[in-house]
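Course assignment 3, question 2. Fill in each field.
Student: A.L.
Task: Predict the tertiary structure for the chain below.
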Amino acid sequence: MRRPTALIAEDEPLLRGELRSALGQLWPELEILAETDDGPETLLALAEHEPDVIFLDIKMPGMSGLEVARVASGKTHVTFVTAYDQYAIAAFEQGAVDYVMKPLSMARLAATVGRLRERLQSKPTDLGTLLEQLRRIGAPQRQFLRWITVAEGRTVRLITVDEICYFRADNKYTSVVSADGEWLISETIKSLLGELDPEVFLQIHRGTVVNINAIESIESDSHGHMKVRLRKRAESLPVSASFAHHFRRK
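Answer field:
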């Protein structure tokens, strides 16, 4: 009989290790296929491993757990790892998904494991309604990055995020690309994703984040491979399979 499989997505290393250890005691036949610590990495792991279960932190860098859950909906049994208050917990319970509270409780996790064992016999839940409830409950409004500063000789240039067409990973640096220029900064793509407004900037590849206002069109070839054409740049940007869901019709 095939062993059940899982992915742990949690950005706190100590809690991630604690959860892995506790699952080893409570559900020894469960195979942990991968552990991730941010949203984009979790999406890649989901696409690669297709686990039966994901233990998903709601607040992660780069892309929230709720955004990841939207992709996993109907494909993987989602268990949220959360410090949310009682109102959000009520929404979880109505949504037929499970949750693990921070700090970790063995009794609570044991109950979660019991329910997950039963749910593995059925199709994963569609989380659309639940995610909309959680969106309405909402978290405090974040302040997103408004500009980037880059050195130009003895001066420092300020580039507003509205001017930026896309960011591209470049070894240990990141290229900031506007309609009329390109500059290197020392901040990584992973770090930038935690500062950019996810309603404006989409990750379309492991090393590429694009401003949706800079997109002219999305093209797809006969094999289903997508690329982004920009309004004010000649180059096209490839879209990896892990991020193609951004451009598919809902």
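Instructor remarks: The CA atoms of residues 52 and 76 lie 5 Å apart. The chain is about 30% helix and 30% strand.
Grade: pending
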